[in-house]
Request: fold
Amino acid sequence: MKQKFLGIFVTFLLSATFASAQKNVTPALDRDPLMEADAKHNLDVAEQAFTPLKKAYKQVLSRFEETYAAYPDFSKIDEFLYIAGMSSYYLSENKGKQKVDPKNERERDKYSPEKLRADAIQYLNELVEKHPDSNRVADAKKTLAELKAGK
Reply:
């Protein structure tokens, strides 16, 4: 009888230990493989557009906006936030090979220097605050300091 009671007690103790250990586990984010693949493709295209040779910053922003609206939980969103922030910053400084058409009112509003600076600050702040372990944080902080000093 004592052995049976001891066996039940040990079983109860072990199961309670395992259950309490499992409470502290942070659940992994469930990622949709199709959305991940699509977002990765958009990131690859945006990275190519961001290169010093192309400097197609409007294209980067277009790919970023599409991806961020559809899948903000993308595993590499920190990379996307960085190149979108930098593209916004560069466009606000009138850099890049894709120029804003002053005759197109919609484009003028979307790519006004004030809006682009605000977007750059928003994207880079989100990178710094939500992804502090990203390898892009130091560069983002440097650019944020430049943006805030320029105001």
Notes: The CA atoms of residues 41 and 63 lie 10 Å apart. Confidence is low (pLDDT under 50) at residues 17-27.
